[in-house]
Specification:
By secondary structure, the protein is of the alpha/beta class. It has two domains: 129 residues, Alpha-Beta Complex (Aspartate Aminotransferase, domain 1); 246 residues, Type I PLP-dependent aspartate aminotransferase-like (Major domain) (Aspartate Aminotransferase, domain 2). The chain is 43% helix and 16% strand. The chain has 14 helices and 14 strands. It has a seven-stranded mixed beta sheet with strand order 2-10-9-8-5-3-4, with helices on both faces. Helix 5 packs parallel to helix 6 and helix 12 crosses helix 13. It is globular and about 60 Å long.
Length: 388
């Protein structure tokens, strides 16, 4: 099929040519005197994306899943209790990881389509008078359902309960794209990955920890090696890493950070919101609904519920085989019930209109009762009206 595949999944996202070019480098000595000139500015500029001045950022040659494990095993002790609300596939996987690592996991099930229930969280933490809960695991953006939780509100609920638990946030599909303020929101561990808002290939776990969390590292007895923050801190202090880094990814990150900071983080957040709003206008024009309930809509991914007599997998396969468009599938409990459009990373108005047009064609071919051009027209009107 002529033309490239159009990637409209919520990660990995499109890698801009500028970043691809920056990654095309010969190998070099990562122990040379010049290497700190690359790594140290990266760590400093990552803090600007996490929006922290007091925390410390780290780069692991791994994934966001490793970031979950880094937070748990570096800041807690074996058998510690953690609390998590399960409302999608990725909050489920984080909870399962914590159980497999030997932590006591208190799971509260929420409707898939909602996020963290702040009132319930506050009430539960007030009940924990002995402070047995050592960490709250918060999924900021649940990619499976297109749901964004209120992390500022999560911190307020914890403070209202006067609870000392650490706040760990999965920001893999939110950081570098959705509003995120580590210091302002009192986040102790922020976890992200390279393949979404950072517009890079998978393979980089970007994490940041508060001073409170770093103090907990000093007393943690959990065994660890490759994912040990202490080794990173020791080596990063002089501009190096404890093991061989992924050099092309670091050079790509340098370019990605330059692009994000040049655009300005407030502008990045506004762009993602605007692209998401145009997509939501199209979904409404089709007569369809989001999996996310009102107030929880994500600005990086929309999970669209199909009619009961339809299978979302048909839309996805038709879009791919006939129109060379990749859409996100429904996962676990919503498999076949939703398909997902990613609007994250290197995207603009025309990118999203291409996605919306491709989805319309695939749905029409799959027997959906929609008006051809209705979603495209709704998005066009919104993007024209809000263009600067």
């Amino acid at each position: 099929m002529a033309g490239r595949n159009h990637l409209y999944i919520p990660g990995p996202t499109n890698v801009p040519n500028e970043i691809l070019n920056a990654m095309h480098i010969p190998m070099e000595d990562h122990r040379s005197p010049a290497f700190p000139k690359l790594l140290t500015p990266l760590l400093n500029d990552l803090k600007k994306i996490f929006r922290t001045e007091t925390g410390q950022a780290f780069i692991f040659p791994a994934t966001g899943t490793a970031g979950w494990e880094i937070a748990l095993t570096n800041c807690l002790n074996p058998g510690d209790k953690v609390l998590i609300y399960r409302f999608g596939q990725f909050s489920h996987l984080w909870a399962e990881m914590a159980k497999r690592l030997g932590f006591y996991v208190e799971i509260h099930q929420e409707t898939w389509g909602k996020g963290i229930p702040l009132d319930k969280l506050e009430a539960r933490l007030k009940e924990d008078t002995g402070h047995e809960i050592k960490a709250v695991l918060a999924t900021h953006n649940e990619t499976a359902t297109g749901v964004t939780s209120d992390i500022a509100g999560t911190r307020k609920a914890m403070d209202a309960a006067n609870h000392p638990a650490l706040l760990f946030v999965d920001g893999v599909s939110s950081i570098a794209s959705l509003d995120f303020r580590m210091d302002e929101w009192g986040v102790d561990g922020a976890i992200s990955g390279s393949q979404k808002g950072f517009m890079l290939p998978a393979g980089g776990a970007f994490v940041a920890f508060s001073q409170k969390a770093l103090q907990a590292v000093e007393t943690s007895t959990y065994p660890r090696c490759f994912l040990d923050l202490k080794d990173q801190m020791t080596n990063n202090a002089s501009g190096y890493t404890p093991y061989t880094p992924n050099l092309p990814l670091l050079y790509g990150l340098r370019k990605a950070l330059d692009m994000l900071l040049e655009e300005g983080m407030e502008n990045v957040y506004a762009r993602h919101h605007r692209l998401a709003e145009g997509t939501r206008k199209a979904i409404a024009a089709w007569g369809l609904t989001l999996c996310a309930q009102a107030g929880f809509e994500s600005d990086t991914v929309s999970a669209i519920v199909v009619p009961e007599d339809k299978d979302a997998r048909t839309v996805i396969s038709t879009a791919f085989s006939k129109y060379n468009i990749s859409l996100g599938a429904g996962l676990s409990e919503v498999a076949g019930k939703v398909f997902r459009i990613g609007h994250v990373g290197d995207m603009n108005d025309v990118s999203m209109l291409g996605a919306i047009a491709g989805v319309e064609m695939a749905m029409l071919d799959s027997g959906f009762d929609i008006q051809p051009g209705s979603g495209v027209a709704a998005a066009i009107e919104y993007y024209r009206a809000t263009a600067k």
